[in-house]
Amino acid sequence: HALIPYIYSMAWLNHRDGISLIKPMYYLQPEDEQAYACPNQYTFGSELLVAPFVTPRDPDTRLSRQVVWLPPGDWFDFFNGDHYPGDTWQAIYGKLDQIPVFVRAGGIVPLADPPDWGGVNNPESLNIHLFPGASNQFELVEDDGLSQAYLEGKYSITSLTQEWAANQQIFQIFPAQGSLDHLPQQRRYTLFFHAINQPGDIQAYINDKPATINHQFDPGTH
């Protein structure tokens, strides 16, 4: 359920452009021989790379091992923010109920809080996970979740943008465009800026007016 905002947006790309949610690595790097040597991993949408553990765990360490190929560019572990250089092979260890997930530099990943029931209403709160190293734009696409009214243009697009520089990171949420009847009257956003140093200055604006926000920094996970 938490992945629904991300998956819906990827489903829109599939509907509009024929881009599959899940792709093998050689779809992205067809001229790189390494992309054909990692059959147990795949891209999941535009931002994520997933490499499930598929081998039995070691009897001594009780951990499974997965060797992951990361394409050129910078990559981050989604869960702990660890940085990995691209165009490399990485040996990853973990429990069988864990799934290694990596995010490309500049990644924007909108998630929702798990609902208490199986409804299809669009969430009143969103958790936006942001990763450093590049500028990026993500289009959050939402509809009523029930009908095919989106075929008649009844859907909304909320643009999420990140501008990245050496000494600043600017993230913007733009007003939703399109049909808005299916959206909640108010929405709360929680922003997670992964893999950064403690900021010396934090500024927030709502409708171009300075706003006070609650924020905290975890030095252990950055």
Task: Briefly say what this structure is.
The protein is mostly beta strands and 222 residues long.
Q: Helical stretch count?
A: 2
Q: Which stretches are poorly predicted, pLDDT < 50 over at least 5 residues?
A: none
Q: What is the H/E order?
A: HEHEEEEEEEEEEEEEEEE
Morphology call: globular
First CA to last CA: what distance? Answer: 26 Å
Count of beta strands: 17
Helix fraction by DSSP (H/I, runs of at least 4): under 10%
**Class based on secondary structure composition and strand pairing:** mainly beta
Widest sheet: strand ordering: 1-2-3-8-5-6
**Residue fraction in strands:** 35-45%
Rg over CA atoms:
19 Å
Summarize the main sheet.
6 strands, antiparallel
Mean pLDDT: 94
Could you walk me through the main structural features you see in this protein, from its secondary elements to its overall organization?
This protein is mainly β. It is built from two helices and 17 strands. It has a six-stranded antiparallel β-sheet with strand order 1-2-3-8-5-6. The chain is globular, with a radius of gyration of 19 Å.
